[in-house]
Amino acid sequence: MSPIRTCIACRERAEQGSLIRLVRVGDRIVDATEPRLAGRGAYLHRDCFDLALARHAFRRTFGPGAVVEGLFSGGESHEVEASPAAR
Ligand SMILES: [Zn+2]
């Protein structure tokens, strides 16, 4: 019964309830799953965070200049602009 959404990293479809909802607020990308924040949302598997960074999925989805708050990887923040594959 849950709506189907596409993960921005792996592009696989999944039930909305199994994905994290992300929204850009100012220059930050935050977890907007609960409470459900208004705004342009995107969906991501919790396990796909690193893949999303590697594929620049956040920048592609939300545009440049945003920072992903450390919700997934031990509290680190990630500059979306940075390229983890740069070296
Ligand atoms: Zn995924």
Provide a descriptive summary of the structure in words.
By secondary structure, this protein is α+β, with helices and mostly antiparallel strands. It has a single domain (4-79), classed as 2-Layer Sandwich (Hypothetical Cytosolic Protein, Chain: A), CATH 3.30.1230. It is 14% helix and 28% strand. It has two helices and seven strands. A five-stranded mixed β-sheet has the order 5-3-4-6-7. Strands 1-2 form a two-stranded antiparallel ribbon. β3 (20-25) and β4 form a beta hairpin. The radius of gyration is 12 Å and the shape is globular. Mean pLDDT is 83; it is low at 82-87. It binds zinc ion. The site of zinc ion (ZN) has 6 residues, from loops. InterPro entries: YlxR, YlxR-like_sf, YlxR_dom.
Between the first and last Cα atoms, what is the distance in angstroms?
44 Å
> Could you describe the largest sheet, including whether it forms a barrel?
5 strands, mixed
Main structural class: alpha+beta
Q: Count the beta strands.
A: 7
**Helix count from the secondary structure assignment:** 2
CATH topology: Hypothetical Cytosolic Protein, Chain: A
**Order of SSEs:** EEEEEHHEE
Shape: globular
How many structural domains in the coordinates? 1
- Beta content comes to 25-35%
Please state the CA-atom Rg, rounded to the nearest Å: 12 Å
Mean pLDDT: 83
Named once each, the bound ligands are: zinc ion
Strand order of the largest sheet: 5-3-4-6-7
What is the CATH top level name? Answer: Alpha Beta
Low-confidence stretches: 82-87
